[in-house]
TrEMBL record:
Signal peptide boundaries: 1-28
Protein name: DUF916 and DUF3324 domain-containing protein
Keywords: Membrane, Signal, Transmembrane, Transmembrane helix
Residue intervals passing through the bilayer: 273-292
Stretches assigned to the WxL Interacting Protein peptidoglycan binding domain: 36-146
The keyword NAD is assigned to this record: no
Pfam families: WxLIP_PGBD (PF06030)
Source taxon at top rank: Bacteria
Length: 297
């Protein structure tokens, strides 16, 4: 009987601790009372899209607006920034790139990118970004996002609670239909340190690919990657653990949605070097031919 009472007390103690810990966890991860909504009205939103998925024209300004509201009884700090999309090594689209290259969405941004605001309790703020498409039609899509981070002090110890929201932006000019034939193998390497193959795949077009199924198979191993997404004009690598380091690419089947991409192996740097060598050889050959003809005359 004594042991039964002790067991009951121990069970109650454990349950109490679990409930206490779960309340702490919930408190730590619950939303901090802020709202953010994309304002899609008056924009050429592509049908059925619920984010800034715009069908754009050349030489036009498009204003992206977000409504943010502080529902708490404390002031919160806001940081917003636009970043380009890229593909991480797991085949997921992420937003970490701040480059301003011509084919990236930040190159269309007018004005300051990084913004800081302070929002009082129950205050509403409209954050807007101006994008100018330029004189030429955008070929395909340029993909990015507005990342909005809210910060507030949660208690007297000064612990900062942060929560971020990602609102996607896509500027599509001339539509290009996704075609897995435009995905190429850029490189194929084995590392002894990780005992793995790394295959680098490159999306050679300004097109977004979603939910791809990739199969890599030979007589030594088989590896599947599901629900892979690739941002426009980006590359990423897939890791394939293997103890067999002497496997050649031409003996391995690499299929994307059933299409064999082995014959799409490219190394752009090598191609550039080869092109320069051929061009140089032709120019030298022409110069030698002209010199010989002049001497004959």
């Amino acid at each position: 009987m004594k042991y039964k009472k002790m067991a009951t007390l121990l069970t109650l103690l454990i349950l109490t601790m679990c409930l206490y810990n779960s309340s702490l966890i919930c408190k730590a991860i619950e939303p901090n009372g802020v709202e953010i909504k994309p304002i899609l009205s008056d924009l050429p939103i592509i049908k059925n899209s619920k984010y800034f998925d715009l069908k754009v024209e050349p030489n036009v300004h498009y204003k992206i607006r977000l409504s943010v509201k502080n529902n708490t009884n404390k002031s919160v700090s806001i940081k917003s920034i636009v970043k380009n999309a890229e593909t991480n090594d797991n085949g997921n689209i992420v937003y970490n790139n701040l480059s301003k290259k011509n084919n990236l969405i930040t190159s269309k941004l007018i004005g300051k990118n990084l913004r800081h605001y302070k929002l009082n309790p129950n205050q509403i703020k409209i954050i807007s970004y101006d994008f100018y498409t330029g004189k030429k039609m955008i070929r395909g899509s340029e993909l990015g996002a507005v990342i909005t981070t809210f910060s507030s002090s949660t208690n007297q110890n000064g612990i900062i609670n942060k929560i971020s929201y990602i609102n996607g932006i896509s500027l599509t000019g001339k539509y290009i239909k996704p075609n897995v034939k435009n995905i190429a193998i850029k490189s194929w390497n084995y590392t002894n340190q990780n005992q793995s193959y790394y295959i680098v795949l490159k999306n050679t077009t300004p097109t977004i690919f979603k939910n791809l199924n990739i199969e890599i198979r030979n007589n030594k191993f088989s590896k599947h990657f599901n629900n892979v997404s690739i941002s426009p004009n980006s590359q990423f690598k897939l890791k394939i653990p293997s103890n067999y380091r002497d496997i050649e690419l031409n003996k391995t089947a690499v299929k994307i949605n059933g299409f064999n991409v082995n014959n799409k192996y490219v190394d752009h740097e090598q191609k550039k070097i080869s092109f320069r060598i051929i061009t140089f050889s032709i120019v030298v050959g022409l110069l030698i031919t002209l010199t010989i003809r002049r001497k004959i005359k």
